[in-house]
Amino acid sequence: MSSSQVAIIGAGMTGITAARSLNNAGYTVQLFEKSRGSGGRLASNRSAMGRVNLGTQAFHADQAEFLAELDHWQHAGWLKQTEQQWTGIPYMSALTRNLLGELNTLFSCEIRQLSHTQQGWLLLDQHGQQHGPFAQLIVAIPAPQASTLLSNCAPDLAACAASVVMQPTWMVALGFKEPLTASQPLSPMQQRIIAEVRPSAIAAEQPMQTWLLRASVAWSTEHLEDEPAQVIHRLSNCFAELFDTAPPEADSAFAHRWRYALGALEQPLNTLADLSRGLVVAGDWCGQGDLQSAWCSGRHAAQQLINS
Ligand SMILES: Cc1cc2nc3c(=O)[nH]c(=O)nc-3n(C[C@H](O)[C@H](O)[C@H](O)COP(=O)(O)OP(=O)(O)OC[C@H]3O[C@@H](n4cnc5c(N)ncnc54)[C@H](O)[C@@H]3O)c2cc1C
Q: According to the UniProt entry, where is the signal peptide (predicted)?
């Protein structure tokens, strides 16, 4: 690998946006992603229920440049808009897969250590394999993980990232072959456990009616270390209270824990940077902690490296 390449850690919306901008400007980029697929918190899971979005279900946008970009994605058939909300077609991670296109990405590669040498940035993965040197580096991962990764090589930026508290969220998906209709909405009492309930209908690639239950931040924090089976049991019991007659047991169920779901710096900064060493730290948490912020941060990160 030549040292003129840019390394990007994290293939969520932030990392992919930065990679696309740099690639369009003629840079060679190499993405590193610890999961088997792209998307990060836009991930979806293949299950007996069909594809289920595990994180963001739909997102909001009000920033002019982001809205213009969404227009392109909509024309490409990657997105649909319902009122003021956008969703990926046919699911969220398909959007990031489309955005990623042919960009160089090493999946199942978790970067555990960074060092800056005269030749550039060296990255060490979970197998002890070294990657680089890279002339420039973008770290596009949640704040607590960024803080750990940067602690040795950029302690000031690490400390700034460490100030962000990212809250957890448990998600539970319940699949029913026979569709159900809830008798009442969540009561304030139930909302202490389940913040949101989203049903989705049976469709061509969706063999079951799926109810997605998003646990409240307070409940998720308190039950962070519970076993998935316990979480499914507790949330299913709360969900059953929405029906006059107890619903049957779900035909399929799974739980997913987001240890770092949502959070942001107290003062939005777009990115943190040490441009003298070609380092930019980006992510939704550098803005308002939402998808739009992730896109803005990724684009800003790329622009900073291009201008430096
Ligand atoms: C349950 C939930 C609901 C949400 N609801 C909404 C909503 O309604 N509206 C909205 O706008 N936003 C919502 N969000 C937030 C939105 O999903 C995020 O703002 C956005 O996806 C963040 O993108 P990102 O690229 O900054 O981070 P991420 O998506 O977290 O991407 C970071 C990537 O880095 C990878 N990674 C981490 N560490 C390493 C490492 N050491 N080496 C290699 N790879 C690594 C991760 O695997 C991940 O793929 C929600 C999030 C969750 C979890």
A: none
